[in-house]
Design a protein that fits this description.
Rossmann fold; Dihydrodipicolinate Reductase, domain 2; 7-stranded mixed sheet; 6-stranded parallel sheet; 15 strands; binds 1,4-dihydronicotinamide adenine dinucleotide; binds (2R,3S,4s,5R,6S)-2,3,4,5,6-pentahydroxycyclohexanone; inositol 2-dehydrogenase (NAD+) activity
């Protein structure tokens, strides 16, 4: 049994604890912590034998914790991931790896200094059946070389920690990672277009259109709408030279009645990506329980996403086309995105 400590027992922390205790195999949650101590205690009450630690650092140092899952807010990730590397413990860090290029660079440098991969980042779309099927079509060459991709990332509402830049750093960062993986290329420049604001968006710039240019010349557009009310709607269509391929509808059921064809829209990311999170965490658990390095998105992927995300924030703040330059990729991260 791999003994896991969870830092951050909010929405995704609780969801990952649920899957680690009642869905996945070979794992138990032995410790939790949260700055909101009452929440941490309430979550631990449902976990027989689990310890509540007063800080993330204490949890990481606990000899009863083999590996750590970080589910606290993005700006707190760096300190915990660095502490895990210093302790030589495997860490699964929810996205984003950290919220700035500099913070991600420090993590990459610490891991390279350690000499062995210890970090996996929670970019779960790489594990989603629909995205995997879309990538298989693109890789097969059936639609010719991919030229463009149209994406939509629609949320019904935003979490409490959401700020203006979060549309890029917290939301579009999923497309940043997915696009690098889908095309197997780095993103070299970004732009942000700002449409008329939604009356549902408060102080946020909602919606916005995020444009990504890839090294090979393909262009990706991403609609980010984070207060669209009707549900959680994730779309993606790749346009190739000879055809197109799109994500299918996530609902397993369609209802015809009363002159209408209807299907449910997922309520949020927990529902839409439920199986992707299961596969992502089970593969992480299995790989590290077997003593190997994690095989999912690496600290390098987290760093690359942060550099693009920083460029996106600059574009949102008034830049036009903002270029993206990555540092040379260390040998530890030799595989393509
Ligand atoms: N992969 C995915 O699809 C998703 C990833 N996330 C990511 O997971 C992280 C958490 O998001 P949510 O669960 O939605 O937020 P949340 O606000 O529901 O939960 C975060 C928890 O972390 C705690 N926390 C904050 N600072 C802390 C610190 N320094 N030490 C310990 N605990 C601390 C908060 O008290 C809160 O209980 C974010 O990085 C977010 O981007 C969130 C939702 C979906
Ligand atoms: O990661 C997630 C949230 O943190 C973020 O706030 C949402 O916009 C994303 O859709 C969700 O997958």
């Amino acid at each position: 049994m791999l003994r896991i400590g969870v830092i951050g027992t909010g929405m995704i922390g609780q969801d990952h604890i649920r899957r680690m205790t009642s869905v996945l195999a070979g794992v138990e949650v032995t410790a939790v912590t949260d700055v909101d101590v009452e929440t941490a205690k309430r979550v631990a009450d449902a976990l027989p034998g689990a310890v509540v630690h007063g800080s993330g650092e204490d949890l990481i140092a606990d000899p009863g914790v083999d590996a750590v899952v970080v589910c606290s807010w993005g700006p707190t990730h760096e300190q915990y991931v660095l502490a895990c590397i210093a302790a030589g413990k495997q860490v699964f860090c929810e996205k984003p790896l950290a919220t700035t290029e500099e913070a991600c660079r420090r993590i990459v440098e610490a891991e390279v200094g350690h000499g062995r991969r210890l970090v996996q980042v929670g970019y779960m779309r790489r594990y989603d059946a629909a995205y995997r099927a879309l990538k298989a079509v693109v890789d097969s060459g059936r639609i010719g070389a991919p030229l463009m991709m149209h994406c939509a990332h629609r949320n019904p509402g935003v979490p409490s920690y959401y700020e203006k830049e979060s549309a890029i750093t917290d939301t579009a960062v999923h497309e940043i990672d997915m696009v690098r993986w889908m095309f197997g290329e780095e993103i070299v420049a970004v732009r942000v277009l700002v449409p008329r604001k939604s009356r549902n968006g408060g102080d946020l710039q909602d919606p916005l259109l995020f444009l990504l240019e890839l090294a090979g010349g393909a262009i990706v557009d991403v609609e980010i709408s984070v207060n669209i009310r009707y549900g959680y709607d994730i779309r993606g269509e790749v346009v190739g030279e000879d055809g197109t391929a799109a994500l299918g509808e996530p609902s397993p059921v369609m209802v015809r009645g009363g002159g209408r064809l209807a299907m449910p829209v997922p309520a949020d990311w927990r529902e839409r990506f439920i199986r992707a999170y299961d596969v992502e965490l089970q593969e992480w658990i299995d790989s590290i329980a077997a003593g190997g390095p994690p095989v999912g998105p690496s600290a390098w992927d987290g760093y690359a996403a942060a550099v693009v995300s920083d460029a996106g924030v600059a574009a949102l703040r008034g830049g036009d086309r903002v270029g993206v330059t990555l540092m040379p990729r260390p040998a530890l991260y030799e595989v393509a995105p």
